[in-house]
Protein PGR-like (Phoenix dactylifera), 122 residues
Amino acid sequence: MEGLLGAAVAGFVIGLAFVVIGLLTTECAGDVASIHLLVIPLASAAVICRSTIDSLLGATIQFSGYCTLHKKVVGKRGPTAIKISGMNMPDNNGVDAVSIFLTTLLTSIACLDRLTSFRKLG
């Protein structure tokens, strides 16, 4: 739960920074500025989504092993690593890339849906 809360706070800070910097550096009508406020919950949701996808992929498909030489859990295969779970591919970078791609796709769909709703109102 602490990780999800941390992700939500990080997304909130990112969204808030976007809104504050946008308000300080651009001139826009009040209705446009209020639409920008939607970035704050969207950023929080996106970071929570990415964190969740990353954790699920990391826990299910990413290689995890125990190094008998160093007596610790490792993320790469090696001659002294005994497999605990996962597959050879993807490594942590691959898991990050997939989680970023999926989060970008889901966030884009959410934004397009929201944009369509605003166009119907206007």
Q: What stands out?
A: The radius of gyration is 20 Å. The chain has two domains: 2-60+92-121, 61-90. The beta strands are 64-67, 72-74, 81-85. The mean pLDDT is 87.
